[in-house]
Write a structure and sequence with these properties.
Bound molecules: zinc ion
Number of helices: 8
CATH topology: Purple Acid Phosphatase, chain A, domain 2
Strand content: 15-25%
Number of domains: 1
CATH architecture: 4-Layer Sandwich
Number of strands: 14
Order of helices and strands: HHEEEHEHHEHEEHEHEEEEEE
Distance between the termini: 52 Å
Helix content: 25-40%
Strand order of the largest sheet: 5-4-1-12-13-14
CATH class: Alpha Beta
Shape: globular
CATH superfamily: Metallo-dependent phosphatases
Length: 300
């Protein structure tokens, strides 16, 4: 056991609450009395079974450590930290999560709730076990890892697109989409922000290694005008697009990029009524997109 017993217990206690999405409401509302609220958005950490594991010449643990250090040093702490899937490098091995969870400890010690989604390189059962979440705990869709985070400025819906472990495509499936439609219909007056690990498959001429039920999801999201933005990772790319006024936010990877010109890092998100301002925080401060702020205005 690399960790001392007491901090580990406290860490696991918080991790359980966070994993189960129970740290939402009261603590969050207290933290968000101001005119805007801050959210730290991370994706694709790809932590291997050892802190020294490299991929594409990158030490992923170092990359996550640097991001965690920057977030814990912020003068105005974020309401929560989101990690949007592919927490693990390869296949959600227990050893990968054993390396991953201690790297998050400075965040939990700073009192920051962490909410995670699962990607194709994660394993649901191993993830729940690593975070000490009972596999039979009550959840919106019993077989999926979903979090709903309600806040004064928006409701976040963090979905589960893990299909087959270590196979690139993902899907939400009917039960999760049906639940989402109902949950969105129950809160029509509050902006809704949806986060899924897999990117939407928007080019039918290309093979689909992204979200297999993109069309079904978009049929659900586009007419529900309270849905203002869709956040995803998987493609290790920082990109902002729009579809029928719905903002499509491709979060960069914390770990490594597939294309040489793409940054790695995280996104600092400030929500207020009517818009979000996103700022890329790249590991490479010389990257052209580092520190650039973009305001996304909500569709009517
Ligand atoms: Zn990934």
């Amino acid at each position: 056991m690399p960790l001392h017993l007491t901090p580990r217990r406290e860490f696991l206690r918080r991790a359980v609450l966070v994993g189960a999405g129970l740290l939402a409401s009261r603590e969050l509302f207290a933290a968000e009395a101001g005119a805007s609220s801050r959210w730290a958005l991370l994706s694709d950490t790809h932590i291997g079974s050892k802190p020294e594991t490299l991929a594409r010449e990158i030490n992923m643990a170092d990359h996550l450590r640097a991001v965690v250090k920057e977030i814990t040093a912020l003068k105005a702490a974020p309401t929560a930290v989101f990690i949007n899937g592919d927490c693990a490098l390869k296949a959600g091995f227990a050893e990968e999560y054993a390396t991953f969870t201690p790297l998050l400890k400075p965040l939990t010690e700073a009192g920051l709730p962490i909410h995670m989604t699962l990607g194709n390189h994660d394993d649901r059962a191993n993830f729940w076990q690593a975070l000490n979440v009972a596999s039979d705990a009550a959840r919106p869709v019993q077989t999926k890892h979903i979090s709903v985070i309600k806040s004064p400025h928006a409701n976040w819906f963090l979905l589960d697109s893990l299909d087959v472990v270590d196979k690139p495509p993902g899907k939400l499936d009917t039960a999760q989409r049906d639940w989402l439609a109902k949950a969105l219909d129950e809160s029509k007056s509050k902006p809704a922000l949806v986060m899924v690990h897999h990117n939407p498959h928007l080019d039918p001429t290309k093979p689909n290694t992204a979200l297999l039920d993109t069309n079904e999801l978009f049929e659900l999201l586009l007419p529900r005008k309270q849905v203002k933005a869709f956040f995803y990772g998987h493609s290790h790319k920082w990109e902002l697009k729009e579809k029928d006024g719905l903002h499509l936010v491709n979060l960069p990877a914390v770990s490594y990029a597939f294309a040489k010109d793409q940054p790695t890092g995280w996104v600092d998100c400030h929500l207020k009524s009517g818009s979000a301002t996103l700022e890329l925080r790249a590991h490479n401060e010389q990257h052209a997109a580092h520190g650039k702020k973009t305001e996304l205005k909500w569709r009517a």
